[in-house]
Design a protein that fits this description.
The protein contains nine helices and eleven strands. The protein is of the alpha/beta class. It has a nine-stranded mixed beta sheet with strand order 6-5-4-3-2-1-8-9-10, covered by helices on one side. Helix 2 links the parallel strand 2 and strand 3. The chain starts with a strand and ends in an 18-residue tail after the last helix.
Length: 298
Amino acid sequence: MTLTGLHLLLTYGCTYECDHCFVWSSPEQPGTITIPQVDEILRQTRALGTVEWFYFEGGEPFLYHGLLRWSALRARKLGFRVGIVSNAYWATSEEDATEWLRDLSGVVDDLSLSCDAFHGGADQERRVDRARRAALRLGMPVDTIQVAPVEDSAAGRVGQLPAGESAVMFRGRAAAVLAPHAPHVPWASFDRCPHEDLREPGRVHVDPLGWVHVCQGIAIGNLFRTPLVEIVARYDPEAHPITGPLLAGGPAELARRHGVGHGEAYADACHLCDRTRAALRVRFPEELGPAQMYGPVR
């Protein structure tokens, strides 16, 4: 596995509790990283020698602005291209947004802003517009992330969504909250993973607890226990108890191989995969976690 990107979740906390969130983020969800831990992750990532892009996301990374600023500056100094994913809750005016972004000018190569109905509709559009104008004023590249409504999920499966929009993937909170409202198809048809390259993922997500995910909730190690260079070198996708079955026959094979009971139909492959993995967490705690990826932690 050769990694060219690493996405670091600075926190599981967020100003929103979006129905489509992969990682169950919310104002109450615990788990935030520290500056020394970020420094260690950056050191390990640089040791790989292959990673070009380092993204900061969450949750909402701007909740910890000092941490985000320090981390972005450090990543840039180490030679990484820097990206940030945010919901722009801080863009209460264009002037305010400019001040939030000023210290990141010349540091951030991609500011991605969530802009869809899941994040607040018209109010969110106004926040994102202010943030976009502020970013452009500062010379910061900016783009938007748009997720289509659940009723458009069928169109998403056949590539009929408008340019710039992606369909809901029914994993995380979406599997529990949104999937019941989407069209379902027979479970056995989900014989491949349509969204992730589990053999050569190219990028991984690292959460605040140090878990390295090839897909949110599927861990291949913890870099606070084992150096990232060793995790990458030892990764054997076919031998992994979760990615192996997924590669052999998708979520349907994952359920079959581990004898997990299932319903007759699901909203998409992620839905079946998510529900199957949730049922397997007790058997595979090192590969399926942490708890934050599978529900609220109180």
